[in-house]
């Protein structure tokens, strides 16, 4: 099963390789990993998407907690969270295809952030499904380059408090 | 007044109460050695190889509980420390290793004697540092000693670039450290402990399975109290030897691959295992799927990752072993009710255990003609009255030492359990001797392993470290030979050592004493003489090459599926063929 782990870590050099090394050294899976500073510049936030059975996830969480430099680990999987990913897609756009690309961009509430006589570069934000959907629709036009940020996630606040 | 990085290094170690460093010099660390030269509080011991230095620091730490310290230069000096670090890491031993590094502006340019030791040792240290600014040095040293010794202990490495060593700053040594990302849990959960106490009361066939964690947390007294209070038999892991008295009638011996028949049978047939500071290593569990099929498991450990790593645990308790045992004993004392059914079941259980002990004790066949290695260990035990600090190498020698020397006190047994490092035993003994000059320190070695750090004989002689080494010389890599005999159709591929070298001459060449025993009758006189001589001694015991370590749980078998010693006739036949 896929799990979304959200970590607070010390913002020091070597932290990413400590965490990544923990996964590779024990044969745990990383599907994606992203890291950036938080409001407190001495702390970074890491989102890791991983998978495994309950025992593996228990070990991963314990090992992360044990890692010096990891301040806090939360597993979002059983909670109500919002997940977002950014994709930048450079797509061929000539003649009639320019119209088609624009149309798809609008349907997905994406943005064209760069254009040349033969291409558009589209920025889209959403969960994995949405990104896959737009990629599938754009594919017939000819995708020249696709860059994805990997997901980041945040917990939803309880509504009826 | 401003101090250089090198001076801060020395002053910080003094603040930590360090009295000995095992250090090997080289280009970038010369300013540190120079700073050490000018002071009297810290004694520097020069090993003959950086691996030796780290094992010495490790032996120093295991025998005292204090943090051991080693120092090496950059590049090859640093890479030579890796096996020592990995050894300490696997056995959770608190040491701090300092390495030199090329100047910070040159890091990453493949400078002369540059090695990314922080990258190399990340997976085999508890934590490591590259110091980039001399202003951070004192704090990092404070933190390193804290991390090495607190929670589950382990090795920490500090990499010191040449320019950091040379730059100056004001010296301030922080009195305490606190880390928001490292707060081990010492006190066990009260409700879990209560639950454990109740479960123990209800168990019909309980066993205590205790490991190195009991030594690390200095919990031998509490372990003994728990066993005696509940009248539950105790088995120890290789790492735990000495945590419970080897001569106690509740002691079942070591368990696992070369554990006693009784210990393995007791674990396999138990209905409750109380695991204390042990981690269900694969050498202990055998085939995990069939490990103790009817047992409920209580697991006490400071490291939550050790719990449920390989076996299912019913009552996990995360905390310092000593503190948890104190609370558990309290809870047990409060439960005064007795239950006849359980009392009767326990009586039967103890009877069964006594029967196992009687039917299959640890044995070997004594011979008048050829020295049996087990006989040598027994004699060493007898003649040292079980009082010596014993270190071992790895292989058969290690297992026979574990089986036939009875340890009654903690911190008297130094052996590389997790990594199984040949070459560990002799330098570890030297480190222990530095820390315990008034104690008798003996290494039990194989003729293969001893050659992996034999150069440390020079250290022993120069530093006048009166350590005795008993080489169980079977002219082969005995444990490898044993596996080849049993599982590889007696094809002795690369396991025969051909009686090279002459260890008596080697000892003499280094200025130590060499003694040799060829016949069983010579064993006792040789040991007695070695004990009399106040210098390092190599004892070369020419032992039976064909002797094997039994019982043995073959790889992949369950721990009740032991191979037991062969009967005499079969052995004779085997020998006739050879
Ligand atoms: C550094 C290292 N290399 C290889 C091994 C694999 N190994 C385990 S036991 C053993 C044989 C040890 O031979 P010896 O020291 O003569 O001891 P004996 O088994 O004969 O008592 C070997 C090669 C090891 N444990 N460590």
3D structure, described in words:
The complex is a heterodimer of chains A (161) and B (578). Chain A has four helices and nine strands; from the N terminus they run E-H-E-E-H-E-E-H-E-E-H-E-E. In chain A, the strands form two sheets. In chain A, strands 5, 6, 7, 8 and 9 form a five-stranded antiparallel β-sheet that branches. The two termini of chain A are 31 Å apart. Chain A is elongated and about 55 Å long. In chain A, 29% of the residues lie in helices and 40% in strands. Chain B is an alpha/beta fold. Chain B folds into three domains: 2-170, Thiamin diphosphate (ThDP)-binding fold, Pyr/PP domains (Rossmann fold), CATH 3.40.50.970; 190-359, 3-Layer(aba) Sandwich (Rossmann fold), CATH 3.40.50; 373-550, Rossmann fold, CATH 3.40.50.970. Helices cover 39% and strands 16% of the residues of chain B. Chain B has 23 helices and 20 strands. In chain B, the strands form four sheets. A six-stranded parallel β-sheet of chain B has the order 3-2-4-5-7-6, sandwiched between helices. Chain B has a six-stranded parallel β-sheet with strand order 11-10-9-12-13-14, sandwiched between helices. The N and C termini of chain B lie far apart (75 Å). The interface between A and B is medium-sized, with 19 and 18 residues. The site of thiamine diphosphate has 19 residues of chain B, from helix 17 and helix 20. Thiamine diphosphate (TPP) is lined by residues 393-397, 420-423, 446-449, 472, 474, 477-480 of chain B.
